[in-house]
């Protein structure tokens, strides 16, 4: 789960990491009032969306007066902010964070990230922080230093020192850096964070360290024991279709492809997505209708999948166990009728009540193709969606 920069900065403060003073605003007038309550002479207005790259996209504005803050907030609030992380449709800005402008001498990069392959937290630091860490990783990867943390989930001072001396900090700054990084690691461990990223970590004109940006991601499996983190979820963020799936009780995850899939069981769903890819097409979603799904849940899942405009064809792969094939067939027929389905549809049904399921589909008047095996089903739908594409 992602959180906003302003929420992340609240957590940083709790863990002793220095951040600029600021306040949240949802109207231009509120933004002005926040600026007036902070010492100037410079303020920064920052769009709060769950995506990085806001600076380059016009979502971060440096202002020299409360008037300018109000103006900047008016421009940013309500805008559809497009960054390299939002996709071309962008994200609507509902809130801005107004904070004290910092006099920046240098910008570093610092993050604590869960390395799943190594099964440990890893710290990454670079002297080349700021807005383009991806380019640093690509062009000069030797300028990103990493160190793995042991199972005690703490960073030893010598590890932090070596990272910060590597970034060219002075002795006094390294001292501040060690404390700051210990705070980040403590936060990551205590709150089940999979990412705590400070970019930039600024060295100020008078030589101190301050976190100017903060991006955090938390392991959803840990939210039960971190109710304070769970409470930070913003229902306006995230994929609207995935949210609908949650409300309807179906396991739906949106992907980048164009073949809609509906499957029962997470394992079979993963295998089906592999089969689609092997057949040369790309799945548009993961959808596990679940073992105990009703006709209504199947219909809900089907209609969520169809509301994705990228979907060009559908593959239904059901192995009826507890979930009976006739229930699936009836749910599909109901949903398809409701939306007047015109897309190519390939169905592979096996298992409990398969004959009844096939009869329902046959007699529905729906246009669809059947397949005897999973590989055949995947090849069929790949072929049909390719035709639609060209
Ligand atoms: P993003 O990473 O989404 O572009 P940042 O919070 O990193 O957003 O802001 C982009 C840039 O704006 C930073 O690299 C920094 O140069 C500048 N900036 C951000 N916050 C401040 C601040 N409080 N004072 C001065 N400059 C800032
Ligand atoms: Mg940033």
Automatic annotation (TrEMBL):
Pathway: Carbohydrate metabolism; tricarboxylic acid cycle; succinate from succinyl-CoA (ligase route): step 1/1. It comes from the Bacteria. InterPro entries: ATP-grasp (IPR011761), ATP-grasp_succ-CoA_synth-type (IPR013650), ATP_grasp_subdomain_1 (IPR013815), Succ-CoA_synthase_bsu_CS (IPR017866), SUCC_ACL_C (IPR005811), Succ_CoA_ligase-like_bsu (IPR005809), Succinyl-CoA_synth-like (IPR016102). GO terms for cellular component: cytosol; succinate-CoA ligase complex. Its cofactor is Mg(2+). Binds 1 Mg(2+) ion per subunit. Keywords: ATP-binding, Ligase, Magnesium, Metal-binding, Nucleotide-binding, Tricarboxylic acid cycle. The keyword Aminoacyl-tRNA synthetase does not apply. ATP binds at residues 46, 53-55, 99, 102, 107. Substrate binds at residues 264, 321-323. GO terms for molecular function: ATP binding; magnesium ion binding; succinate-CoA ligase (ADP-forming) activity; succinate-CoA ligase (GDP-forming) activity. It is an enzyme of class 6 (ligase). Heterotetramer of two alpha and two beta subunits. Belongs to the succinate/malate CoA ligase beta subunit family. PANTHER family: SUCCINATE--COA LIGASE [GDP-FORMING] SUBUNIT BETA, MITOCHONDRIAL, SUCCINYL-COA SYNTHETASE BETA CHAIN. This is Succinate--CoA ligase [ADP-forming] subunit beta. It comes from Desulfovibrio piger. The gene is sucC.
């Amino acid at each position: 789960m992602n959180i906003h920069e302003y929420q992340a900065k609240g957590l940083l403060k709790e863990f002793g990491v220095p951040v600029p003073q600021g306040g949240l605003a949802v109207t231009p007038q509120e933004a002005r009032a926040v600026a007036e309550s902070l010492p100037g002479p410079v303020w920064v207005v920052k769009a709060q969306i769950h995506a990085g790259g806001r600076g380059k996209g016009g979502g971060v504005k440096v202002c020299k007066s409360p008037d300018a803050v109000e103006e900047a907030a008016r421009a940013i609030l309500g805008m559809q902010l497009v960054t390299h992380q939002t996709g071309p449709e962008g994200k609507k800005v509902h809130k801005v964070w107004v904070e004290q402008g910092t006099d920046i001498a240098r910008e570093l990069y610092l993050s604590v990230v869960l390395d799943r392959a190594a099964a440990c937290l890893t710290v990454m630091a670079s002297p080349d922080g700021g807005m383009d860490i991806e380019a640093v990783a690509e062009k000069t990867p030797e300028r990103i230093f990493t160190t793995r943390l042991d199972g005690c989930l703490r960073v030893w001072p010598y590890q932090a020192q070596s990272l910060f001396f590597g970034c060219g900090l002075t002795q006094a700054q390294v001292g501040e850096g060690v404390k700051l990084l210990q705070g980040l690691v403590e936060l990551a461990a205590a709150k089940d964070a999979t990412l705590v990223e400070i970019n930039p970590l600024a060295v100020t004109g008078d030589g101190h360290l301050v976190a100017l940006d903060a991006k955090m991601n938390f392991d959803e499996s840990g939210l039960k024991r971190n109710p304070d983190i769970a409470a930070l979820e913003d229902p306006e963020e995230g994929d609207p279709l995935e949210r609908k799936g949650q409300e309807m009780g179906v396991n739906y995850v949106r992907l980048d492809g164009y073949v809609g899939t509906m499957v029962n069981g997470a394992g079979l769903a993963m295998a089906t997505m592999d089969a689609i890819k092997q057949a040369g097409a790309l799945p548009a979603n993961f959808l596990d209708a679940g073992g105990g799904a009703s006709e209504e849940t199947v219909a809900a899942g089907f209609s969520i999948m169809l509301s994705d405009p990228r979907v060009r064809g559908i593959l239904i792969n059901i192995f009826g166990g507890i979930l009976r094939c006739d229930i699936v067939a009836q749910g599909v027929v109901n949903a398809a009728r409701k939306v007047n389905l015109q897309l190519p549809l390939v169905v592979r049904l096996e298992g409990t009540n398969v004959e009844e399921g096939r009869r329902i589909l046959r007699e529905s008047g729906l246009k669809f193709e059947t397949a005897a095996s999973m590989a055949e089903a995947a090849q069929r739908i790949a072929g049909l969606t390719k035709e639609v594409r060209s």
